[in-house]
Amino acid sequence: MKQKLLIFWILLTIAPFMALAQNYNATAQIDSTKILIGDQLNVKLTITAPASANIIIPQLNAKSLDTLGIDWIENSAIDTTKGNGINTYHQSIKITAFDSGFYSFPPIEILSIDSQVLASTQPLYFEVQTIQVDTTAAFRDIKQPAKEMLTFKEVLPYILLALAAALVIALAVFLFKKFYHKKSPKKVLPKPKPKVKPHIAALTALEQLRLKHLWQDGMVKLYYSELTDIVREYIDGRWDIDAPEMTSSEILDAVATLNLDKESADELRVILSTADLVKFAKWQPLPNEHDTCFKNAVRFVESTKEQTDTQSNTNNTKKS
After folding, report:
1. Which of 17, 136, 264, 280 has a C-alpha 20 to 30 A away from that of 241?
2. Where does residue 232 rank: exposed (0-12), middle (13-18), buried (19+ CB within 10 A)?
3. Total domain count for the chain?
4. pTM (2 d.p.)
């Protein structure tokens, strides 16, 4: 009877502690039991405890796993779910290893605020394998780093820098135009000289030709060459006929369409035909013929020159 009473009192004493222990639980699961060197593993930690209990979940770090040859990477935030007076805590611990072999991830003990062990996870085992190298295969080039698209945050500083540079340049140009141009003297462009009328240019050139005394000095061919050049340039400027690039016959045909008086047309024909004989047939005209061709050239220009408004009114008054 005394023995039964002792057992009863023992069970009554430890029953609250047994019930308390059943409300705490900690489990850990690992992604895989085999990885290659440098691959990452996730250890998923799940803890259940009474909602009213204050517990301590130890946070692993690099120093915690250094002696085991395991490299710690990071701990995720602790996610808590509540229900039926029980709190469930979830956390992920990311690890890796850089040496081949077998590893043991240590148990994680859940503590009370007075450092009593409330629950503990089981140890986890995994193997790290090396990459098998085919020594018979040919060597290959190392792959270049993969190119990633730049994000907006990465590009933003360059955009702001470009805008700032453009603003500085625009301000510099504005200030330069505002102050420098005011100080620098304005350049006065010379007025373009008025274009000399064709008949004035021709008469001036004929007078210069007369003063050279070419045919008097025996340079007959040069004399007629310059004489016809003056007449050709006059026809080009007066009627926009490309006489310098035409033959004598082509010039006469083109001028025939202008309805000139017969005397002017005959004067032009004498000049061109005489010059052609001298230049191509080596003909030597008489001195009076030289003078006649020159006078014909002067009369041709005078009689066909462009009439100004003043001259036209004067001629009309005389006719009246």
Report:
1. 280
2. buried
3. 2
4. 0.40
Last residue of a domain, one of 84, 106, 129: 129
Q: Which domain holds residue 73?
A: 24-129
- Residue 87 located in a structural domain: yes
Q: Is residue 93 part of a domain?
A: yes
Is 23 within 8 Å of 83 (Cβ atoms)?
no
Q: How many CB atoms lie within 10 A of CB 126?
A: 19
Domain-terminating residue out of 109, 129, 149? 129
pLDDT one digit per residue (tens) for the chain, 320 residues: 556 555 555 555 544 444 444 589 999 999 999 999 989 999 999 999 998 888 999 999 988 888 888 999 999 999 999 988 999 999 999 999 999 999 999 999 999 999 899 999 999 999 999 987 767 767 677 777 777 777 878 888 888 889 899 999 998 888 887 776 555 555 666 656 668 899 999 999 999 999 999 889 989 899 999 999 999 999 999 999 998 999 989 999 998 898 889 898 888 998 999 989 988 888 888 888 888 899 999 999 999 988 764 454 444 444 44
265 within domain boundaries: yes
What DSSP character marks residue 137? S
